[in-house]
């Protein structure tokens, strides 16, 4: 009997899915017929064609313009045509290409299924076609089965007690107490127990029932604990996980899935996987796993506005002990960041090879010229030797900066934070660029409190300051000014390097911290720049938990701001 009820409820559920599938296919076919009829410019022909389609399918057909206005309505039950399409529903259909919803029937009562598809003719969206038809009722079969089973158990227990009492000639009071406990159990009170009864068959029956309830409660608690354990594991996974039943209705999604697909768990559970706005490939992967009963794997491009993410999706069917398919589980791993990191690595190798090859080729060419006889030339010989020395120094600078960048990219394990006096750090950094600044007539200014302290790696702070000051001096015309300022700010300390130099074009501001990126390659090579200085600054600051920003205008100068958070020195 229980199996029969279960089967009936499942048939109700399957009927709803079958109706949705039939309506969707009918909508696609109707769109094809309207497209073939090419009746867009003939309203009478369009209306007659739509009426024939609606009559043949025993459905209501409505056609909306792309803007949402109602073009025609085949529903003859209304005194006036139907309303225009709601803007949000129209937008969803135009974006996804289709939609299905279940809604109350305003005329016939009950519920009606609405399936909409976009009509496209010769690459042009002609409108949105929507079919409406009755939707079969569906019960929550899990709740029904649970209530039926508990009720059946209570009836059986009550019948057994009544028969036993009648046979034994017992009083009504023990039977009444057993019935009260049975009703409490039926209502979900698993703490209910039958109190000890007088000696006899009823006492043994009560003890057996209490024992059975104890074992059932223990099993329920075990299942709950296991469910909480597995749910906690799935919730903490960084990969997106979704579980569907055999009818492709979602039973569970974890936090990563909600974030990746931009959906709330409460909005998708118990819905069909193809009806909740997921990407086509995401839903298809799960449906294929259910239909083919084997693991499915695919690469999915997930587009959200201007952002496109690459997802590796794997879906596998779930089987019962008898081998029947009971559902499927999908696992989606976002590899977008890995792809970007791999692209950065390839770009770095390519750029590094190019940057090293240029000075190496120059040294070789100069050496070959000297070997060919230029060494004996009193004018060219010394000049070529000087060029070799300069180029060697440039090559050494590139290698030193690459090693420095590699060191700071390894993270905080190479940092040794300590209290650093800002005034002393500023003086030491300015001393290293003072000669270059004086040679160009550039004024170097410093401003900070004498007792300002920043908790950071002293050598790294020097690297940051020298790189920023060196860039400021190089790109400031003679007679300009470079200013170094330190200021305590809420939660940390800010160091600012500003200049009156040539500035940076706005389109280059977002890329100047990339490895080997140069705004003006010819100018950078002429000044001896390696293209790694700002990348080193960025990684050092981020390793300290800080940030670096830049503001610049062409021919007006640039301002770099380095923020380092306040930190407490570790206890000795």
Fold blueprint:
Layout: H1 2-37, H2 43-57, E1 60-64, E2 70-73, H3 87-96, E3 98-104, E4 111-121, E5 124-134, H4 141-168, H5 172-186, H6 201-236, E6 240-245, E7 250-253, H7 255-261, H8 265-268, H9 280-292, E8 296-304, E9 307-319, E10 325-334, H10 336-371, H11 380-409, E11 417-421, H12 422-439, E12 443-447, E13 453-457, H13 458-474, E14 481-489, E15 492-499, H14 521-527, H15 533-543, E16 547-553, E17 557-565
Parallel strand pairs: 12-14
Antiparallel strand pairs: 1-2, 1-5, 3-4, 4-5, 6-7, 6-10, 8-9, 9-10, 11-13, 14-15, 15-17, 16-17
Helix pairs in contact: 1-2, 1-4, 4-5, 10-11, 11-15, 12-13, 13-15
Descriptive keywords:
alpha+beta; Beta-Lactamase; five-stranded antiparallel β-sheet; 15 helices; disordered N terminus
Give the neighbour order of strands across the main sheet: 2-1-5-4-3
CATH level 1 name of the largest domain? Alpha Beta
User: What is the CATH T-level topology of the largest domain?
Assistant: Heat Shock Protein 90
General form:
extended
Number of helices: 15
- What is the share of helical residues? 40-55%
Name the assembly state: single chain
Query: What is the number of E strands?
Result: 17
Give the name of the CATH superfamily of the largest domain: Histidine kinase-like ATPase, C-terminal domain
Q: Report the C-alpha radius of gyration, rounded.
A: 38 Å
- As residue ranges, the low-confidence spans are 1-12, 138-152, 522-526, 568-572
- Beginning-to-end CA distance, first to last residue: 75 Å
Q: Which CATH-level-2 architecture of the largest domain? A: 2-Layer Sandwich
Main β-sheet, in a few words?
Answer: 5 strands, antiparallel
Task: Round the mean pLDDT to the nearest integer and report it.
Answer: 77
Q: Strand share of the residues?
A: 15-25%
Tell me the domain tally: 5
Secondary structural class: alpha+beta
């Amino acid at each position: 009997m229980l199996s029969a009820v279960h089967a009936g409820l499942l048939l109700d559920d399957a009927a709803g899915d079958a109706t949705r599938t039939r309506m969707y296919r009918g909508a696609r076919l109707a769109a094809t017929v309207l497209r073939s009829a090419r009746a867009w410019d003939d309203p009478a022909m369009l209306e007659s064609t739509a009426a024939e389609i609606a009559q043949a399918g025993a459905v209501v057909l409505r056609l909306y313009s792309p803007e949402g206005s109602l073009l025609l309505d085949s529903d003859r039950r209304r005194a006036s045509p139907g309303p225009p399409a709601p803007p949000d529903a129209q937008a969803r259909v135009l974006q996804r290409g289709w939609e299905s919803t279940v809604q109350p029937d305003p005329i016939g009562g009950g519920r009606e299924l609405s399936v909409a598809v976009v009509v496209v003719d010769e690459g042009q969206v002609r409108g949105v076609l929507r079919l409406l038809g009755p939707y079969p009722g569906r019960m929550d079969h899990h709740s029904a089965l649970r209530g039926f089973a508990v009720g059946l158990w209570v009836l059986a227990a009550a019948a057994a007690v009544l028969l036993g009492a009648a046979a034994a000639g017992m009083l009504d009071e023990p039977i009444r107490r057993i019935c009260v406990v049975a009703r409490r159990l039926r209502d979900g009170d698993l703490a209910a127990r039958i109190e000890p009864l007088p000696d006899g068959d009823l006492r043994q029956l009560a003890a057996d029932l209490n024992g059975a309830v104890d074992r059932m409660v223990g099993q329920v608690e075990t299942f709950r604990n296991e469910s909480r354990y597995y749910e906690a594991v799935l919730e903490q996974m960084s990969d997106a996980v979704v579980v569907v039943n055999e009818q492709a209705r979602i039973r569970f999604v974890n936090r990563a899935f909600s974030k990746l697909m931009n959906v709330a768990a409460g909005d998708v559970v118990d819905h069909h996987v193809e009806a909740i706005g997921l990407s086509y490939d995401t839903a298809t992967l799960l449906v294929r796993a259910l239909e083919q009963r084997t693991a499915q794997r695919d690469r999915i491009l997930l587009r959200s506005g201007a952002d496109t993410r690459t997802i590796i999706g794997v879906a596998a069917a779930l089987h019962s002990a008898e081998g029947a398919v009971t559902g499927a589980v999908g696992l989606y791993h976002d590899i977008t960041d890995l792809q970007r990191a791999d692209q950065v690595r390839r770009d770095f190798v390519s750029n590094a090879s190019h940057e090293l090859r240029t000075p190496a080729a120059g040294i070789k060419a100069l050496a070959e010229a000297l070997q060919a006889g230029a060494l004996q030339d009193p004018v060219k010989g010394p000049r070529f030797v000087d060029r070799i020395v300069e180029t060697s120094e440039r090559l050494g600078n590139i290698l030193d900066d690459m090693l420095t960048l590699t060191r700071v990219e390894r993270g905080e394990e190479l940092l040794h934070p300590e209290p650093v006096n800002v005034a002393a750090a500023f003086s030491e950094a300015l001393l290293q660029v003072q000669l270059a600044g004086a040679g160009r007539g550039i004024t170097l200014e410093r401003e900070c409190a004498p007792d300002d302290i920043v908790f950071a790696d002293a050598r790294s702070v020097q690297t940051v300051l020298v790189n920023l000051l060196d860039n400021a001096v190089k790109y400031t015309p003679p007679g300009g000014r470079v200013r170094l300022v330190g200021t305590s700010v809420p939660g940390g300390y800010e160091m600012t390097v500003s200049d009156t130099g040539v500035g940076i074009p706005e389109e280059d501001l977002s890329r100047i911290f990339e490895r080997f990126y140069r705004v003006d390659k010819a100018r950078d090579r002429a000044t001896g720049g390696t293209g790694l200085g700002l990348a080193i600054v960025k990684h050092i600051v981020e390793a300290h938990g800080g940030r670096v920003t830049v503001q610049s205008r062409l021919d007006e100068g640039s301002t770099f701001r380095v923020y380092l958070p306040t930190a407490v020195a570790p206890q000795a």
